[in-house]
Write a structure and sequence with these properties.
The complex is a heterodimer. By secondary structure, chain A is an alpha/beta fold. Chain A is 41% helix and 19% strand. Chain A is built from 13 helices and 11 strands. Chain A is globular and about 60 Å long. Chain B has one domain: MetI-like fold. Helices cover 75% and strands 3% of the residues of chain B. Chain B is globular. The two termini of chain B are 41 Å apart. The chains are: A alpha/beta, B mainly alpha. At the A-B interface, helix 1, helix 2, helix 3, strand 2 and helix 4 of A face helix 3, helix 6, helix 11, helix 12 and helix 16 of B.
Chain lengths: 343, 565
């Protein structure tokens, strides 16, 4: 009997450990890799020093999960975020047209003036860019030599690459979606379906997300993976290895831009603007560079030598406009899946 | 007179309270979400459901989802049943500990499991490398992954423990007299098993199979990672609709179809279970044979089986451990403690509270209350199902299982949306997650307890009552000790569900509330694959320890001194 009541007490005690509330809060939704190991801890510390505010990063999932969370809260009329960092350009259409974010001008965010113009893809500037990267193929140079690698989409269909490709599912991964959009950009709609039909024999597997695909690649299960053009910089700087190299199909790379915005309904609009401006400052931009392994949005950011030498900037970046994605995405994903399972 | 009424009222409350709880926390949010799939502008519509069925791709996916789940369940039974036999029949050192550890595979985040499988069974994995080295082969001899085989193997890894634990809980209570009479009548060992023992074990075997089937039916990261290019399940489509396209109508329609199929299967199993359950004598004197002494042919086969299935379970987990101690540096693999120092570094002791060690504490702070709550909800319902006869009992039994068959992505979305509005404004955070976890976990308590409870002779309770015990006393002193293993198994699985759950946790979590699997995910997203392996290893060790302790503690808690062996 005593043991039973002991258990009850334990359970009751666990029930009490709830989190307390602080002073003025600024809640920032972002994706987990940005918050835990990216620039977030630095931003939080530096910003709190300058302003009397408690910056709270909420990042329980990936960028899409967080956007879903934001949309659900907004629908219920109870948005709890003030700022959202991490709308990918492939998901831009999902965020647009829902009146989610406050439109911004150069006056609101002075550092916007130094941002590369080709990154400003939201006409209302409700979402502004803070980083960009390029989806491309990465290969294992111990398996494929420079002469071996395909240089065009057509060459990638060669039977000598049978089961050599690791891809991400465009339905669950934004990297996978970028690659699908790239093929649509290249072959048009519905031409891309034919391309995928021919590509099938060369695919080893299609994973849920980028990390599973890259893990397979690192376990040497197949020598080609869809990943980022900055991966070489990462492996040189963090792993001291030049084994993994970038291949550019048709000298292209699919451009992926990450955007941020101020959530409508915030009570601290001015502070939010200052925060966005701070994220665009060279100081934070440099930090983003080597924690996220992407290119900075601010042109005035200095690139570290090793990063500059090893990260590949594709000569011919491509992108499908958000509007076109919004109109067709549902159908594209369905058609694509039909080809994959049906052959 | 009043006393009797109060008692009756108390008993009714015991049954009504958990049902009211479920109605409010589970059925209401779910139906709120589901109505988006079948109601448009105030009218009932089957447009979206029809859209799913008229699309050949969706039909294909639904059929494939069922097929892979069926094959996976079969393999899980083939592996799980012999282990139940081994635990029942043999005595060996550390048996209790090993039995507690069988649940560990069940809590692995699916992505960690996929990585373990790739590292061990992959074309370039440890197993193939070993075989290539031993026999001087040029190519990998075993091509298990990136096909249906890979999916089925990984699902068996996850679900065989359910079969083992469910069947074992019933088997060790089975009176050997039945088998002994068959033996006396001249039935051979094999005939005895198939004609006497197996029919008696069918309720728990079917229970385990039903749970395993539903799990495989809802699985998706494993199907994508290990299945190769051509495989996909309904759950992937639901994820796409809710998370990528944010289109609730088609998503809800898909989720309705998914849960309907899961429940249809559950209903079928409950019908079967009803047919096979018989009241049998309980026993505490099932004798065991030492496994280590005197090798016979039978024991040889057992050892062979232990070896092969051990490879399936230990291989992937050992590969994750190995991975956590190695690092690629300048093209060579070196041994290192780098990843452990990385996850324990105070610099990540984030301002945001996502520090790995903190996540261990979080996982327990969520898991233990969820386990308690799931038991409190599940036990009375199990009691109702096993002890009362009423119209629609089987339908009731099916409906209380609904939370297992619901898409985790849809459930996460449903709970988040409902918790933001009246009448359920719980918001998100600790409390909301505990509620969500307990909803996902209580069916395990029900399923673990019902077969054992139904197998108990009612005469025992009646005898106690004729000696003056109240119904509650009879339950506490007679039934509870007898079903303790079943309840414990259910509770431990409930705990495991909470530890491993991700979708609802992601939706409802607040800063500082990261659980262990979420940290594994974070580390992977941040390119720290070694760190993720170190965190996964930590997760395996911590949960293994927890299972052993909970079961030890629980045995004593429910056992009472009178009944201990």
């Amino acid at each position: 009997m005593q043991k039973r009541s002991l258990l009850l007490i334990v359970i009751a005690l666990m029930a009490i450990g709830v989190i307390g509330v602080g002073t003025e809060k600024l809640v920032v939704y972002t994706y987990s890799s940005f918050a835990s190991y990216g620039a977030a801890p630095f931003i939080e510390e530096a910003f709190e020093k300058k302003h009397d505010v408690d910056v709270q990063f909420v990042a329980t999932g990936d960028a899409r999960m967080m956007l879903t969370k934001l949309l659900t809260e907004q629908e219920a009329g109870r948005p709890s975020a003030d700022v959202f960092i991490g709308v990918g350009s492939v998901d831009l259409s999902m965020a647009q047209g829902r009146d989610l974010f406050i439109p911004l001008t150069g006056e609101d965010v002075p550092n916007l003036a130094s941002v590369r113009e080709d990154l400003l893809i939201d006409p209302t500037n409700s979402l502004i860019p803070y980083e960009h990267c390029y989806i491309t193929l990465v290969y294992d140079s111990q398996v494929l030599t420079v002469e071996d690698i395909p240089l065009t989409f057509e060459q990638l269909l060669d039977p000598k690459y049978k089961k050599m490709l690791i891809l991400e599912d465009p339905r669950t991964s934004s990297v996978g979606l970028a690659f699908l959009l790239w093929t649509i950009h290249q072959y048009g709609d519905p031409g891309y379906l034919d391309y995928w039909r021919k590509l099938l024999p060369n695919i080893l597997t299609i994973t849920q997300g980028w990390s599973a695909a890259y893990d397979l690649f690192l376990a040497h299960e197949a020598p080609i993976v869809v990943s980022f053009s900055t991966d070489t910089a990462y492996s040189v700087i963090e792993e001291g290895s030049t084994r993994y190299k970038i291949m550019l199909l048709n000298s292209q790379g699919y451009r992926s831009i990450y955007l941020m915005g101020i959530v409508k309904g915030t009570k601290q609009e001015e502070l939010c603007k200052e925060l966005l401006d701070f994220v665009l400052s060279p100081q934070v931009q440099e930090m983003i560079l080597t924690t996220e392994w992407v290119f900075p949005a601010n042109r005035e950011t200095l690139l570290p030598v090793l990063f500059y030498q090893n990260a590949v900037f594709p000569p011919d970046p491509v992108m499908v406009p958000a509007e076109r994605i919004g109109e067709n995405l549902n159908r594209w994903l369905l058609e694509w899946a039909g080809v994959i399972v049906g052959g | 007179m009043w006393e009797a009424r109060i008692k009756r009222f108390g008993r009714a409350a015991l049954i009504v309270a958990p049902l009211a709880f479920l109605a409010l926390i589970f059925y209401y949010p779910l139906l709120r979400l589901f109505q988006e799939g079948v109601v448009e502008e105030g009218h009932l519509t089957f447009k979206y459901i029809g859209e799913v069925f008229s699309e050949p791709y969706f039909r294909h996916v639904i059929l494939f989802t069922a097929k892979q789940a069926l094959l996976s369940t079969l393999l899980a039974m083939i592996i799980g049943l012999p282990w139940a036999y081994i635990f029942t029949r043999y005595q060996f050192p550390l048996k209790d500990t090993l039995r507690s550890l069988t649940i560990v595979p069940f809590v692995l985040p699916s992505i960690t499991l996929a990585v373990g499988f790739i590292l061990f069974f992959g074309n370039n994995g440890h197993l193939n490398q070993l075989l290539m080295g031993l026999f001087g082969l040029k190519g990998p001899p075993l091509r298990l992954l990136y096909s249906l085989k890979g999916i089925v193997l990984a699902h068996a890894f996850y679900n065989a423990p359910i079969i083992t634990r469910m069947v074992h809980a019933q088997w060790e209570r089975l009176n050997p007299a039945y088998e002994e009479s068959a033996q006396a009548l001249g039935a051979g060992r094999i005939r005895r098993f198939f004609e006497v023992t197996l029919p008696l074990l069918l309720p728990s075997l079917m229970t385990g199979a039903a749970l395993a089937f539903i799990f495989c039916f809802l699985s998706f990261p494993i199907v994508l990672a290990l299945g190769g290019a051509r495989f996909s399940t309904i759950e992937v489509e639901i994820y796409t609709q809710f998370i990528v396209l944010y289109q609730h109508k088609l998503g809800a329609a898909l989720a309705i179809i998914e849960i309907a199929l899961s429940l249809l299967f559950t209903y079928g199993y409950i019908l079967l279970e009803g047919r096979f359950t018989r009241e049998v004598e309980v026993t505490y004197t099932r004798s065991t044979v030492p496994l280590l002494r005197r090798l016979t042919l039978g024991k040889g086969i057992v050892w062979l089986f232990i070896g092969i299935s051990g490879l399936l379970f230990l291989g992937p987990m050992a590969s994750v451990f190995y991975d956590s101690f190695t690092r690629e540096w300048a093209g060579r693999t070196v041994f290192t403690l780098h990843w452990y120092s990385y996850i324990f570094q105070p610099q990540y002791e984030a301002l945001i509270g996502a520090a790995p060690l903190r996540s261990v504490v979080n996982s327990f702070q969520l898991g233990l209350p969820a386990m308690g709550l799931a038991s409190l909800v599940g036990l009375p319902i199990a009691f109702v199902i096993a002890r009362y006869r009423f119209r629609g009992r089987r339908l009731f039994d099916t409906l209380v299982m609904a939370s297992l068959g619901v898409s985790s992505v849809a459930l996460g979305a449903a709970l988040l949306a409902a918790f933001l509005r009246p009448p359920l404004e719980l918001g998100s955070g600790w409390f909301a997650i505990v509620l969500a976890h307990s909803i996902l976990a209580y069916p395990f308590v029900i399923r673990a307890v019902v077969p054992v409870l139904e197998g108990l002779k009612q005469g025992l309770v009646e005898a106690a009552r004729s000696l003056g015990a109240t119904r509650l006393q009879a339950f506490r002193d007679i039934e509870l000790p007898l079903i303790r293993r079943g309840l414990l198994v259910g509770a431990v699985f409930a705990f495991a569900i909470s530890l491993g759950e991700m979708s609802a946790t992601i939706m409802l979590a607040q800063p500082g509330l990261k659980t262990m699997p979420l940290v594994v995910n974070d580390l992977r997203a941040a390119r720290s694959f070694g760190g993720a392996s170190a965190m996964s290893s930590l997760l395996i060790l911590v949960t293994a320890g927890a299972f052993v302790i909970i079961e030890r503690f629980g045995e004593r808690l429910f056992g009472g001194t009178r009944w201990s062996r």
